[in-house]
Amino acid sequence: MSEGTLYDKVWEEHTVSELPTGQTQLFCGLHLIHEVTSPQAFGMLQERDLEVAYPNRTHATVDHIVPTSDQSRPFRDDAAEEMMAELEQNVRDAGINFSDPTSGEQGIVHVIGPEKGLTQPGMTIVCGDSHTSTHGAFGALAFGIGTSQIRDVLATQTVAMEKKKVRKIEVTGELGPGVEAKDVILEIIRRLGTEGGVGYVYEYAGEAIENLDMEGRMSICNMSIEGGARAGYVNPDETTYDWLKETEYFEENPERFDELKPYWESIRSDEDAEYDDVVTIDGSELEPVVTWGTTPGQGVGITQPIPAPEDLPEEKQDTARMAQEHMGVTPGETMQGYEIDVAFLGSCTNARMPDLRRAAEVVKGRQVADSVRAMVVPGSQRVKAAAEAEGLDEIFKDAGFEWREAGCSMCLGMNEDQLEGDEASASSSNRNFIGRQGSKDGRTVLMNPRMVAAAAITGEVTDVRELKEVTTP
Amino acid sequence: MTDEIPEIDSAFGSGVPIRGNDIDTDQIIPARFMKVVTFDGLGEFAFFDQRYDENDEPKDHPLNEPQFQDAAIMVVNANFGCGSSREHAPQALMRWGIDAIIGESFAEIFAGNCLALGIPTVTADHDTITELQDWVDEHPDADIDVDVENETVTYGEKTVDVTVDDAQRKALTEGVWDTTALMKSNADAVAEKAASLPYVDD
């Protein structure tokens, strides 16, 4: 049983009662909602004649179905328009703040929460979205919930949960050139498995994690759920505090920063905290990781051979065989040279400013391959505006990328941005499940944003570290 | 307020095997069917892309086979329901007719969503599951009894031990799996808790 970890402290801090089931009734400091998983919950409230208990601790945005090209209303897609209208009605009736597309602050829920300073260390944060784990980057306990639980949170601001074990994942050393947070988390999932984290919360620690910027920490916490862990976190430190200072909430309420900092410091895991499990990974040995299969755990270093199914543990062999058949990859070869049709730079994993900056450095002065459809979908309207202020949009557009409006887009194919037929995509998103990007024959290769940029240029999976220098005429 | 929440001590009915590890919620209900504001009618879209080809012609899939059309107990392998938090997934299975799922293991959010709908997710080891899946194939019309209270599954002449998570077992058998009213009754304690938290300033 863990003791003295951030998880133990935040759990304790938010415990309201023990339920007859043995579960804990946990107070939710922040409830984020979006258009896909909330309408049914509002419907259930209505059926039971219940009201939203804490509208001020609830915040809404629209991201999954919002078009990233023409956002004029009504949306071209009737179903999307209906969902949008329903959300507008629900938040108006309940008095919930809504970062809608006219606000200049709309975006993917896991991008805007941190940007607005809604996400803070030591909070409990829930959302009807499995990538809520993202907010753990700030030292919050953040996890995804289903729609019936959204109903619970709307009605009571609490959720019934069982306490989990804590696994510390220590990433030591310094990451090599071209190796990013995304590669770290893909490697963690490859090693510990897609269900290795079931029953655990992951604490990410060690030099390689501490040296990451907040956006990198978000990329890692974001994909905790792909490793089976419902939540993952990084202890807050000066990097966290510096980032928070620049957010909307603390710019408007600077006095709150000093008031809250002692609390943030107090919930950090103790030096002598006890963990249920500790795993150590040498970060200096990592290289860019790409997936060869149809689960995020089926990854491989870019210079390493794709494993033969028979070399994997027995329980993984069937899934690997099916995945390799779907992807059309050959064991023993590397993923380099795997042809792609689409390059997608976006999602709650990798569509923040540093992601776009790094990708733009790769793209600058180069051209997207003729055979590739390439798009950048910034994570939020603020990210988009900041990128435009730096001229990143021009770099991408000059190279042949489409520069889109903010949303989830091709990460999950709920708007018009979808793969067609058996198109292959180089994607900075989080899931390579069959059908995930909108076509059931589509093929997704997950990778970091610079690797996506490199693949867009060459038309195939490419080791960005080997990309030829741009020669100026 | 809500109606009395039923106590669920067991589930009973014929089975349907769904084989494979890591079956994610995008497979159980593809995202395009989530562009709706209610859960009504999701049942027909369960496993849609596994069941139909691009021309909507049926493919080989247990949910398409006539002998499994009345199934109430789904038998699955490891890490079932991984991926997205969409409750649309268990909603689709429930509306297709599933009352309980027996598997090697379940993704956490998925199992929680099932519990919120009163669907038991009970677990057993790989060999037990494989044997049960094979038995269901041979006896598609025969009933399986999932005893949540006593943590057993009975089929044919055989009774095997299964595991039901403690909180899930209590919630189901004591009729407290729908937690809204229960937690609402602690509203004063919730308000006190909110007031005690340093970051709550409203």
Structure keywords:
heterodimer; A: 473 residues; alpha/beta; Aconitase, domain 3; 2 domains; 5-stranded parallel β-sheet; 16 helices; 19 strands; B: 202 residues; Aconitase, domain 4; 7-stranded mixed β-sheet; 7 strands; globular; leucine biosynthesis (chain B); lyase (chain B)
What report would you give on this structure?
Chain A folds into two domains: 6-266, Aconitase, domain 3; 290-466, 2-Layer Sandwich (Aconitase, domain 3). Chain A contains 16 helices and 19 strands. Chain A has helices at 6-14, 39-47, 78-94, 109-116, 147-156, 181-192, 207-210, 214-222, 238-245, 248-252, 254-266, 314-327, 353-363, 381-389, 392-399, 449-458; strands spanning 15-18, 24-27, 30-33, 58-61, 97-99, 124-127, 141-144, 158-161, 165-172, 200-205, 231-233, 277-282, 289-291, 299-301, 342-345, 373-376, 402-403, 424-427, 443-446. In chain A, the strands form five sheets. Chain A has a five-stranded parallel sheet, with helices on both faces. In chain A, strands 17-16-15-18-19 form a five-stranded parallel sheet. In chain A, strands 11-10-9-12 form a four-stranded parallel sheet. In chain A, strand 15 (342-345), helix 13 and strand 16 form a beta-alpha-beta unit. In chain A, helix 6 (181-192) packs parallel to helix 8 (214-222). The longest helix of chain A has 17 residues, at 78-94. Chain A is globular, with a radius of gyration of 21 Å. Chain B is of the alpha/beta class and 202 residues long. Chain B has a single domain, classed as Aconitase, domain 4 (Alpha-Beta Barrel), CATH 3.20.19.10. Helices cover 31% and strands 16% of the residues of chain B. Chain B has helices at 25-28, 48-51, 88-96, 108-116, 126-138, 166-173, 180-184, 187-196; strands spanning 10-18, 73-76, 100-103, 121-123, 143-147, 152-155, 158-161. A seven-stranded mixed sheet of chain B has the order 4-3-2-1-5-6-7. Chain B starts with 9 loop residues before the first strand and ends in a 6-residue tail after the last helix. The mean pLDDT of chain B is 96. Classes of the chains: A alpha/beta (473), B alpha/beta (202). Chains A and B meet through strand 1, helix 2, helix 3, helix 5 and helix 11 of A and helix 3, helix 4, helix 6, helix 7 and helix 8 of B. Chain B: Its EC number is 4.2.1.33.
